[in-house]
Amino acid sequence: MRHSSPGQAAAAVLALCMAAPVLAQKSTADGIAEYREMLQDGNPAELFEMKGEELWKQKRGPRKTSMEQCDLGKGPGVVKGAFVELPRYFADTGKVQDLESRLLTCMERLQGLDAQKIAATAFGKDEQKNMEGLVAWISSQSKGMKFNLPQGHAQERQMYEAGKRMFYMRGGPHDFACASCHGADGKRIRMQDLPNLTRNPGAAEGFGAWPAYRVSSGELWSMQRRLNDCFRQQRFPYPGYASDVTVALGVFMGVNGKGGTSTAPAIKR
C-alpha cells in the first residue's frame, strides 16, 4: 500500500481549500437558476400580459381609439417580432425609439393622451401601470425570437456609439460606470452573476429579459425602470423617462445581444 508523503497530503488539502469557494460559487449560481426556473411556471407577468393585450385593443383617451394601428416598426398593428428589433429609427418622428418611447408616440397621436404627462408620472402609478401591461404583452409576442436590431440608418449607428460612451462613462461619488458591473465576465454581486453586456451571451441574457416581474417588489419593471435603478445605484441623477440616454443604452445592449434569444417578460428576484 502506497502512503502519501506529508508534503503531498498538505498539497492535497491546500488544493481542496482553494477549490471550495469555486464549488460554493457554482452551487449558489445553480441554486438561483433553479429558483428562477421553478418560479417561471407561475410568472405573475402573465397577468400583466393579459392586461396589456386588453389595453392594446381598448378604445381609450380623448379620441376613443385603440392602439391597434400603432406602428412598432413592422407596420401598423404588427406586434409579433417587433420587440426584438427595438430600439430602431422611425421616419415619422425622425428619431430612434425604444418600445416605451414609441408607445408614448402612439398613445399621443392615436388616442390623444398626453405623452409628456405620462413620462413624468411615477413608476407604478396611473398610466405608467398601463404602460407596464403594454410592454409585458408586446414583449411576450416575441418571446423565443432572436434579437436583430437594425443599424442601417445613420441615427441608429450614432445612438449605438452614444450608448457605448454612456456605458463606459464613469462618474458620481463612487466613480461608477455601467461597465463597472457589466463590462467583464465573472462579476457577481450579492451571490448573483452579473451579465457582461458588451457581448453575447451576457448582452442577450441581460437586455433580453426585461421587462420582468420582480418578486422582491411585486411589480413588473420595464427596461426604463431597470435603467433608472442602475442610475440610482451609481448615484447618478435619474434620466428622463424614454430619454435619448436610456434609448441609446438600449441600442448598445440590444445590438451587442444580436442573435440572442428574448426571454421577456422574465422573472427576477
What does this protein look like?
This protein is mostly helical and 269 residues long. It has two domains: 1-41; 44-268, Cytochrome Bc1 Complex, Chain D, domain 2 (Orthogonal Bundle). Helix content is 49%, strand content 8%. It has ten helices and seven strands. The protein has helices at 6-40, 45-57, 99-111, 115-120, 126-140, 154-168, 178-182, 202-207, 223-233, 244-256, and strands spanning 88-90, 95-97, 187-189, 192-194, 212-214, 219-221, 266-268. α2 packs across α5 (126-140). The N and C termini lie far apart (53 Å). The model is unreliable at 1-24 (pLDDT under 50).
Element order, helices and strands? HHEEHHHHHEEHEEHHE
Could you tell me the CATH topology label of the largest domain: Cytochrome Bc1 Complex, Chain D, domain 2
End-to-end CA span? 53 Å
DSSP helical segment count:
10
How many extended strands? 7
Fourth-tier CATH superfamily name of the largest domain = Cytochrome c-like domain
Strand order of the largest sheet: 6-5-7
Strand-pairing-aware structural class: mainly alpha
- Mean pLDDT equals 87
**If you compute it from the alpha carbons, what radius of gyration comes out, rounded to the nearest whole angstrom?**
22 Å
Number of domains as seen in the coordinates: 2
Catalogue the unreliable spans: 1-24
Portion in helices: 40-55%
What does the largest sheet look like? 3 strands, mixed
Overall geometry comes to globular
CATH class of the largest domain: Mainly Alpha
Looking at the overall shape, the CATH architecture of the largest domain is Orthogonal Bundle
Proportion of β residues? 5-15%
